Amino acid sequence: YNAMIDRRPAAVVRAKDADDVAATVEFARENQLPFAARGGCHSVPGFGTIDEGVVADLSAMRAVSVDPKAQVARAQGGATWGDFNEATHEHSLATTGGIISTTGVAGLTLGGGIGYLTRGHGLACDNLVGAEVVTADGRVVRASADENADLLWALKGGSGNFGVATSLDFQLHPLSEIYGGPMFFELDHARDLLEWYRDFIADAPEQFGGFPAFQIAPPLPFIPEDRHGDTFVIFVACWAGPLDEGEAIVNKIKAVAPVVADHVGPMPYPALNSAFDGLVPAGLQHYWKANFVRELSDAAIDAHLEHGPKVPAVNSTMHVYPINGAAQRVGADETAFGHREANFAPVIAGMWPDPADNEANIAWVKDYYAATAPLSEEGGYVNFMASDDQDRVRANYGANYDRLVTVKRQYDPGNLFRSNQNIKP
Q1: Is the four-CA dihedral 248, 252, 258, 264 of positive or negative sign?
Q2: What are the backbone angles phi and psi of residue 73, rounded to the nearest 5°?
Q3: Comparing C-alpha atoms, which of 290, 260, 94, 97 is closest to residue 184?
Q4: What distance lies between CA 145 and its chain's CA centroid?
Q5: End-to-end Cα separation, the chain, in angstroms
Q6: Beta-carbon neighbour count of residue 374 at 10 Å?
Q7: 3-state secondary structure 53-98
Q8: Residue 421 φ then ψ, to 5°
Q9: Are 76 and 124 in contact (CB under 8 A)?
């Protein structure tokens, strides 16, 4: 997915079921070979592949089944959120599932899982009610509230440290259509928009999701042609409450400043979840940085105003995701996701097509991060971490790190599963 990554495994096993994955894990362990699991293939640090080791490729395991009566869905370990949303939308059901539909269900969930529905229904991991996992000793085990409960706890934010998730069960929620979409504003109004967002989101109705961003305008038909390629501050709104209330909520955003262009209205939830897929195809160069934030302070807004408008490519962006609401009603020790005190999860996502631009564009990410990190929490969202963030592992897993080490010792004492933001046993 990230074209900066060029690793050469000794073998890739295209698994068809959990038994294939278990055999692959056993082979790697017995032959003392490095191991990696490849699911949705969206890992920016390239954790889905490994040099001179064995890769269990789950990308053929994409089935999603739905029990509409129980409002539960089961997704195989290689399923994407596009697969998941297609299956659940047939029943007018959904759960929290990221921003890009080509992202893997397993990888996003195991790292926490921030998405449009976080404020109303919690993180993706908060909706994880069970999983089938291949552990380091080659066993296929169930993790649920009643069976291997410590493993289920660790899977809820502890990333891929404890096993290979070959299927995941989610609590679903009634949802068919949302009201929302992107709105583009002139950069002159960026401060107004960020200050409005900071105040509004603190106690906004929990059915409201969405985030501000800096974005170069892509060549889309709803954007004036003479503005294609210009940089804007944008807001992507998602109202998951009653549709007849959506326009009034979105109009609060539009009242902040004149709108240059927008593509807002009622739409199926999967349409919004896939709206930006075209900006992030496989094969771009990627370098990301992130921290959690309790307060979007005036100084933080100043830093965003200095660096955000310098976004270097149409694929690159900076988003400030809200993670309050329902996500904060889960206790800090109830899941492995250890940062329930945070209100925001900003990400500086450097993405561009040409390797010749790497030095300049990585510098944009690093300079932006250097300006915002002192105004943020020490830890950040595991799913946004880069390959050079291993020294931040303890801070990123937060207050639950020591308990995660205990679970790691139980399920992976030899640290076979180390191609991740690694919790060492």
Answers
A1: negative
A2: -125, 145
A3: 260
A4: 24
A5: 29
A6: 10
A7: CEEEECCCCCCEEEECCCCEEEEECCCEHHHHHHHHHCCCEECCCC
A8: -75, 95
A9: no
Measure the CA–CA gap between 323 and 304, rounded to whole angstroms.
Answer: 19
Contacts 24+ apart (CB under 8 A), 295-300: 295/343, 296/194, 296/197, 296/198, 296/320, 296/343, 296/344, 297/375, 299/375, 300/372, 300/375, 300/376
Task: Report the distance separating Cα 141 and Cα 144, nearest Å.
Answer: 10
Separation CA 227–CA 417 (nearest Å)? 47
Q: Where are the beta strands (DSSP E) in 109-259?
A: 128-134, 140-144, 164-171, 173-174, 177-185, 208-216, 231-239
Percent of the chain whose pLDDT exceeds 70:
100
As a whole number of angstroms, the distance between CA 378 and CA 398 comes to 9
Helix (H) or strand (E) holding 36: strand 35-38
Q: Decide if pLDDT at 159 tops 90.
A: yes
SS3 115: coil
Q: Residue with structure tokens 């971490």?
A: 385
289-319 pLDDT, tens per residue? 999 999 999 999 999 999 999 999 999 999 9
Per-residue pLDDT tens over the stretch 111-153: 999 999 999 999 999 999 999 999 999 999 999 999 999 999 9
Distance, CA of 363 to CA of 347 (rounded, Å): 15
Looking up tokens 């991740």 gives 420
Residue 231 — φ and ψ, nearest 5°?
A: -95, 135
107 falls in which pLDDT band (50, 70, 90)? very high
Mean pLDDT within 90-111: 97
